[in-house]
Design a protein that fits this description.
Layout: E1 2-8, E2 16-22, E3 25-33, H1 38-48, E4 54-58, E5 63-66, E6 69-72, H2 74-82, E7 88-89, H3 92-108, E8 117-120, H4 127-135, E9 139-142, H5 144-149, H6 158-172, H7 199-204, E10 207-209, H8 212-217, E11 227-230, H9 235-244, E12 248-251, E13 255-256, E14 259-260, H10 263-274, H11 283-293, E15 298-301, E16 315-317
Parallel strand pairs: 1-3, 1-4, 2-16, 4-7, 8-9, 8-10, 10-11, 11-12
Antiparallel strand pairs: 2-3, 5-6, 12-15, 13-14
Helix pairs in contact: 1-2, 3-4, 3-10, 3-11
């Protein structure tokens, strides 16, 4: 059995483990949170190195993108370089393929339409998704400055984001990652005192897209039927979205036993199936596997009677 582990800076409360079969291979897929403790993550990575088939880095990015420019976050690089033997990924490669295809699929289903207003909480984290939304005719409000840095300045064009990134990222990339993104117990909390801080950007949007922890960070008390396009969610997350008035949840990664995993986990699975080093994988490799697996975005209408129920059964895909 192949073993894939995500070592996450996120909350241990979100840990999950499943066994699935993918393209004839049996996998044990686990997510282990370290509650924002980088040193704990380093220790765990050293323990797993050489003992599992692939490792995903969760709750942190190694690379962010603005167009074709790639920026390296130093805390993420520190974790990446801790692993010497086992293939290790951060999910950025799969985001650039899976999430582009997800947007195209949703546009083909009429769930994303030209003219839709989209709040993209962080485009640099998911530049492929952002580009695909623009190609589908959507009007984007980019929240990179607001959600990562707390600077209340929306950005409305990808080329403008690129220009800002060129100036700021050489400095920002050296900051401790917890200054930029909710880690550890912060992932279990919503900034209730700031729940109206960016409320109008949520409420003006037809679609709210991007990393769920950023979406939740300033989630207003009242939505009005928005489609939420994200990846990693739990049943509790679905309950929160439903209570706030979201209309639909679309996750880009598959659901295993009632829970979606992050792109870092799925990319680790892909690297294992390909039997390649991460540096040797190509977008074409990922696209071929996606076609073989026939994965499609998971669409959930946010009605309590329609919420998925957890199951103990082992799933089979592909």
């Amino acid at each position: 059995m192949k073993r894939v582990v995500s070592v996450s800076l996120g909350s241990a409360k979100r840990d999950h483990s499943v066994q699935v079969q993918l393209l004839g291979e049996d996998f044990e897929i686990s997510r282990i949170g370290t509650d924002g403790d980088i040193q704990k993550a380093v220790k765990l990575l050293k323990e797993l190195d050489g003992k599992v088939d692939a490792i995903g880095l969760g709750g942190i990015d190694v690379y962010l993108y603005a167009s074709k420019q790639r920026y390296t976050l130093q805390d993420g690089l520190k974790l990446l370089e801790t692993v010497k033997i086992t293939p290790v990924v951060d999910g950025s490669g799969l985001k650039n393929t899976l999430e582009r295809q997800a947007v195209k699929y949703l546009a083909g289903q009429g769930l994303i339409k030209a003219g839709d207003r989209v709040l993209m909480v962080s485009a640099m984290d998911r530049f492929g998704m952002a580009e695909a939304l623009v190609e589908s005719g959507c009007h984007l409000t980019l929240g990179d400055l607001m959600f990562a840095l707390g600077i209340p300045l929306p950005i409305y064009r990808l080329d403008k984001l690129q220009a800002i990134a060129n100036k700021l990222m050489p400095i920002i990339s050296r900051l401790p990652f917890q200054y930029l993104y909710p880690t550890g117990p912060k992932q279990d909390k919503q900034a209730h005192t700031n729940s109206n801080k960016y409320a109008r950007y949520y409420q003006e949007a037809h679609i709210v897209a991007g990393d769920f922890h950023y979406i939740r960070k300033y989630l207003p008390e009242q939505l009005n039927g928005q489609l939420i396009l994200t990846n990693t969610t739990t049943r509790e997350d679905l309950e929160i979205l439903m209570d706030r008035g979201a209309g639909m949840l679309v996750t880009t990664t598959p659901q295993f036993q009632g829970r979606t995993f992050g792109t870092n986990v799925m990319e680790a699975v892909f690297v294992t199936l390909l039997n390649k080093a991460w540096t040797e994988t190509t977008p074409e490799d990922y696209i071929t596997l996606l076609q073989q697996l026939a994965w499609q975005p998971k669409v959930v209408k946010l009605r309590r009677d329609l919420l998925p129920r957890p199951t103990e059964q082992v799933g089979k895909l592909g």
